[in-house]
Amino acid sequence: MFHLECIDCGERYDPRKVIYTCSRCGGLLSVKYDFSRLPSRLDNEWKRHPLSVWRYKELLPVERTELRVTLGEGGTSLNRCLRLSEEVGLKNLYVKNEGENPTGSFKDRGMTVGVTKAVELGMEKVACASTGNTSASLAAYAARAGIECIVLIPSGKVAFGKLIQAMIHGARVIQIRGNFDEALKIVRSICLSYPIYLLNSLNPFRLEGQKTIAFEIRDQLNGEVPDKIVVPVGNAGNISAIWKGFTELHELGLIDSLPQMIGIQAEGAAPIANSLKRNLDHVEFVNNPETIATAIRIGSPVNWKKAVRAVKQSHGMVEKVSDAEILEAQRLLAQKEGIFVEPASAASVAGLIKIKERGLIDKDEVVVCILTGHGLKDPNIIMKQFPKPVEVEASEEAVMNALMPKKSIIEAPARM
Ligand code: F0G
């Protein structure tokens, strides 16, 4: 029903083999399905199940679905944002809130499939390098499966909430004195030498779970395809996965157009945005990536080739935003729409604002921003920006006094 294929040389591989890149040319691998063997009324089949990753099991690379390792991932809400739309100057702006996933990020979509795959392949240990969310998610799914989890993280650069998730789920957490790119290099090498299954987005099965973001958007918009999908980009797996999801729907005749893929990177970690702007045919890596959006603090995105193809094929673009723009977008989402996201997720909205200001988007276009992770994962960033709430005596009078004067909490700078 499916096989692995190199995106560069086309070499095919048995999906029961533990392999992450093409052994002939080193290229990235992608999962290909035999569409002729899918049920003819796929859509009707899907409608019988609730919105979730596993609703789309016919297009997931799992043979033994009874083994599935699940925590109820996917089925996240797609919110129409009227107040934010007004602020940005758009009429049809939606956000898909991936923070609603079991561990608070879109990574759970990939991990439910990736860890199921590990179990199916008989692997008893899984590992990843992470800026935080991947490790939190892998640790939870490994615990659920009863297998061992090893995570490598850049020391001091992982948001507190994510670190404690990996710890409580029992992962063996190793902090390296280096960045994410270095951690990934090490873990890749370890997984090639030992019977440990790599679950970074280099793993093509994991990305299959993430492509369900596209399937859900189509179903939530009743078959309508957005004009633009805006996604924060780090290791560049998610933008590639979402694009793959839309192209599969298109090939199956389930949608009649494709969206433009818009990737957003942080200014200090923008190898793809910078390289595309310079019209390079490859991506020049950034040696010392830096941004407050630690989730996307990545200088050598392993999936750059898939991402660049997604952007070029969809006539999209990759933009970069400053840390200040990211924090402003985070505050806007929280205060205009009631949605609290972590800084990396807010990058999508910050990027959208920038693109709108440059006149690269029409006000009538249907736009979906992917909000990749929950704000509670990174509380420190909030504590650094906002003054401590006022403290008064425990009396109604004191509370009213604090509310009424000019410098009350009602009129504190945080209000918009
Ligand atoms: N947003 C959040 C909240 C993330 O955690 C990540 C990646 C991204 C966006 C970017 O996705 O890498 O597929 O382009 N986080 C990884 C991690 C790297 O280790 O948690 P991408």
CATH architecture of the domain at 78-104 and 207-383: 3-Layer(aba) Sandwich
> What level of helicity do the residues show?
25-40%
Q: Mean pLDDT score, rounded?
A: 96
Kindly identify the CATH topology of the domain at 78-104 and 207-383: Rossmann fold
- Tell me the structural class: alpha/beta
Radius of gyration: 21 Å
Total count of helical runs of at least 4 residues: 15
Biggest sheet: strand arrangement: 4-5-13-10-11-12
Distance between the termini: 53 Å
The counted number of beta strands is: 13
Uncertain residue ranges: none
At the first level of CATH, the class of the domain at 78-104 and 207-383 is: Alpha Beta
Main β sheet profile: 6 strands, mixed
Which band does the percent of strand residues land in? 15-25%
**What's the helix-strand series?**
EEEHEHEHEHEHEHEHHEHEHHEHHEHH
Note down, in words, how this protein is organized.
It is a single chain. The chain is α/β, with parallel strands linked by helices and 416 residues long. Among the domains are: 37 residues; 204 residues, Rossmann fold (3-Layer(aba) Sandwich), CATH 3.40.50.1100. Helix content is 38%, strand content 15%. The chain has 15 helices and 13 strands. Strands 4-5-13-10-11-12 form a six-stranded mixed sheet, with helices on both faces. α3 packs across α7. The longest helix is centred in the middle third of the chain and has 15 residues. The chain is globular, with a radius of gyration of 21 Å. The model has no long low-confidence stretch (mean pLDDT 96). The protein binds ligand F0G. The site of ligand F0G has 22 residues, from α4, α9 and α13.
